[in-house]
Amino acid sequence: MTKADIVDIVSRATGLTKVDTEVVVDGFIQTIKNAMERGERVDFRGFGSFSLKVRKPKKARNPGTNEEISLPSRIVPVFKPSKLFKERINQEYILK
């Protein structure tokens, strides 16, 4: 699913024009980005949370040259789904 697909679905559900819906979706995404840039955690009850995680420096290997390289410490955004969301996904996709 792409952003355009989301805009289409929300536009149909709300009765807003696609242009107005895209502005709302862009604003929503930018708000999450801005909060995370400030180091804030973003929580959506029943869905999950976005937060930042510090990755420690580590040794890695370039698969093309087999050369060992050092990866520095870095901060990465992560999404952690809520327990309720994980349960719903597991009920939906139970392997039979």
Could you name the CATH topology of the largest domain?
Answer: HU Protein, Chain A
Number of helices: 3
Sequence of secondary-structure elements: HHEEEEEH
First and last CA, distance? 25 Å
By CATH, the architecture of the largest domain is named Irregular
Structural class: alpha+beta
Radius of gyration over C-alpha positions, nearest whole angstrom:
19 Å
- Poorly predicted segments: none
Structural domain count: 2
Q: Describe the biggest sheet?
A: 3 strands, antiparallel
Q: How much of the polypeptide forms β-strand, as a percent range? A: 25-35%
Helix content: 40-55%
Number of β-strand runs: 5
Placed side by side, the strands forming the largest sheet appear as 1-2-5
CATH superfamily of the largest domain: IHF-like DNA-binding proteins
Which descriptor suits the 3D outline?
extended
**Average pLDDT score:** 94
Which CATH C-level class of the largest domain is it? Few Secondary Structures
